[in-house]
Protein 1
Amino acid sequence: MAEREERESLELLREMSGLLQESLAGAGGLQPLFALLRRLVPYEHATLYRHDTQNGRLVCRDRVGDREINLIDVVRFDLGFGLSAWIAKQRRPIVIPNLRRRTGLPHHDLRSYIGLPLVAGDELVGVLNFGHGMPDAFAQVDADLLHILGPQVALLLKNLDLVAALQHSNQELAERNARLREMQDRLVESERVKAIAQVVAAMNHEINNPLTIISGQAELLDLRLGDGDMVAREKLDIIQQQVRRLGRVLSLLSQVRHPVAQAYPGGEQMLSLLESAAQSRELDTLAP
């Protein structure tokens, strides 16, 4: 019987090693841990206290059952209140096979108790408490098993912390990359607008001057023709219409703030001037 129980304990410890490997990959969590621990320690209640390095105290991280499991929790030790804090300081497991029942206190319906310090190397990770309502419920739990189990659980919890920290870092990195891409897109858009503004400024300078001359010469010709040559007058009207059209196109170009390309016959792309309904109506008026 003892040999069979030893084989079962070794098998469960091998499963704990597998759970450690899964924790490195970010799989599982505390529930698989509690389920496996129940096969090693037949508890009814369990409470996991983690060591908060910032304030140097034990803090309840998770539990199985309707309440935290701790004893003499009115007494304060270096790492907090209760027997858990004392176990954390001593760094050795405590097994109480038969607690005296005391009425009036909810946690004193426990008759069996195990306090297991969780230490990885020299680092205190926390304390794991097990409780049962029957006396001697943990009589078959081997003391050597507890000394092996504590560091295993401590390593698993540290692995979970590392995975959680890595996931948090990855999320922060993804958010920063998203903000960087957004800033780059804005910079590209700003440079596009700046480049178009420079082109428009050059066009206004290089085209408006010839258009002014063309328009002025057309008006002079119109004055010299008088009422005699109607065909020539119609041609001059067409010239003036096209001059005004070009002037309005230049005006619309100078108002473009968010350049958008549109399809052009032949598979080409050209700058769209239709940024608004008002501009669309204005462009319609440019037709001769």
Protein 2
Amino acid sequence: MKSISISRRKFAQLLTVGAAGAVARPALTLARAAATAPSATTPTVVRLSSNENPYGPSVKALKAMTDSFNLAWRYPEEHADLLIESLAKINGVGRDQILLGDGSSEILKLCAETFTGSTANGQNGSGPSPRGNLVVGDPTFEAILQHAAVNGAEVVKVPLTGNSFSHDLPKMAAAAREGLIYICNPNNPTASITSKNELRDFITKTPSQTMILVDEAYFHYADSSDYESVIPLIKDHPNLIVARTFSKVYGMAGLRCGYCVAQKETIERMRPHQSWDSVNIMALAAAIASLDDPEQVANGRRLNGETKAFLASELGELGYKSIPSQANFVMIDVKRPVVPLIQAFKQRNVQVGRLFPALPNHLRLTIGKKAEMEAFLSAFRQVTA
């Protein structure tokens, strides 16, 4: 993704206005967090369970966050407009084709509420009116399944293909009843991809009354020649939605900022289900600054790739393999039920991924810093001995 610098003057002006309110008040900076840091006697927990970016936000994003403290009294509409403007230019779409979310998780929730389950009232108030089911791969990221179930939708799980752990698109298409098909690509928890040719063909052939949500949360980490974003296909497919997030390579999981790209009419169908101003001003400021940092994505990809290769080599020497990963986590075949191992790691202050019932002998592990992976490997040797 290329760096941009549009509206930087306007962005700086917004922060300057807020700075005026800081007069006669103590300086508020991220450095104050050090005062509440754990003491040296607190056990160190190695957290490799949530696919977070251990290197955190860019320096530019951190500064923008600090500056935005002085704008906490403002509603975030102006910053939201600036981020939408930036994202529209980066993705080559109109401003009215972008919808921001409180992380991409909110985008998934909005899609479930808009396109699955039943409406509150049918025609002429005659009772519930069906909107369709949700079709997903199995295993995949579970949040949208929960949202659809709460919405009264039937959820259909289609097992991933046996060899490549890709989405079985023909079977997913056959299971769809209008509603929504969810494709996480690269997929969580397997870190595998569905090939660009298969996905493009599937999108082209899917009937327009069935919506397709492609979750590209891990897009920036994928480097396979068989992978590509499907955002360019949106112009020809009104039933296609693509979700993105700042939680992964941009290191902003705790701030909650994401978005989706779709045709204008699709965005307008989703918007009424969303709370006003759901993305906070600090997250918006950090996201805007992140897009203007050309090093953030490149460094994140490089560091992730180096550490992932180190982990694969060490696991290989121990006789263990992983599903080929196109993300910032791996799915390790531990050759035994994973639940006892998860608990054994926890006892050693190492947090690993949760159980995914479709793959009961696989352990999902976030790629952390090299020292964290060494701590994991030390515990892994103990629990698998």
Protein 3
Amino acid sequence: MATRAYAKYEGIFAHPSAAVETGLMSRLVMKFGGTSVATIERIRNVARHVKREVEAGHEIAVVVSAMAGKTNELVALCKDAAPIHDQREYDSVVASGEQVTAGLLAIALQEAGIPARSWLGWQTPIHTNDTHGSARIISIDGAGIIDGFRRGEVAVVAGFQGVHKDSNRITTLGRGGSDTSAVAIAAAIEADRCDIYTDVDGVYSTDPRVVPKAKRMDRIAFEEMLEMASLGAKVLQVRSVEVAMVHGVPTYVRSSFDDPENPKEGTLICNEEDIMEAQVVTGIAFSRDEAQITLRRVADKPGVAAAVFMPLAEAGINVDMIVQVVSDDGTTDMTFTVGSVDYERAFLILEKIKDKIGFSGIAGAKDVAKVSAIGIGMRSHAGVAARAFHALSEKGVNIRAITTSEIKFSVLIDEAYTELAVRTLHSLYGLDAA
């Protein structure tokens, strides 16, 4: 757990760039995404951000993504070479994008007078399982990076990649995997904080393009951020938030396009107890990548739900909202949602098992969206969701399905009403307030 200096360095979380006024040095991981390293000039700008933190007295590991567009280019090359290709070789190709960035940033840092060296996933090493294309991290040996700190070096680590120990093959972590790499490395080297630099200056109460009054949050709890990321917010990759929460890694979301000499405060993702007063609702998330499937007149008997959802799970299709309506004749209508990219596959799988399950018909819709309200304050307040249902009904928004948990609720609605629903809920819970 990354608690090496949490209590002692309380100030480092309130003021991310402040020098630590003790005899001990703090340790930071800084992660920069593809847009932040898209050109040589932007890489030089990243080097200035890193230099600021080095001069403030911090030990620094930097995790980088491939330059913007590079991964898509490498994926296209693989597909051109062979539409159906060896995933192990695919990983070898697409991992090269981060290797280029890591080397270029190390050169830029050296040019700026900062000792630095690049590290690839297999050099660290970052050990993963052998699920090529979407591997999961098993362990990280941070000893080499820490040795570099003792020599005064900045470690520049290629994100998104690792190595399978038994086969010694390069693996990649899936899209957004550099965020996961950064937080996992922060946990492995017991960093005091992980800073995720992106093209936005923090986590907002909702998408500012939909609600111009959306506000940047100073702090948000791990659980809230996990829900927001999984429900459509694009700021952080879900797995990175999971790793941060499990290992207690305080994580800042900040903008790489701020002035390196005078950066703005971002959003700190931290433990719930580190938030002075939790709002009832912290943010509104939405996703248009949803599809609805309804099975008509399914036999209402034990084992039917398993017979429906097990084949989907075995095909790697995630089912989200589920609504079951039982009739008097011993049948039920079963409605659920899947990701829009899985819609056709799910439909085919269910049609193949129609006779086995015994439903009379299947219907679907892709013109739907999921809108969610998230907040740890919901635990101690009643009627939060009911207020939303009333407000949406007054705006003429029909709710197709509902799911709830301790700290969130989600509604499935017609996609055409997405922005209206988001604006309505954002205002309802006082998130428009200055």
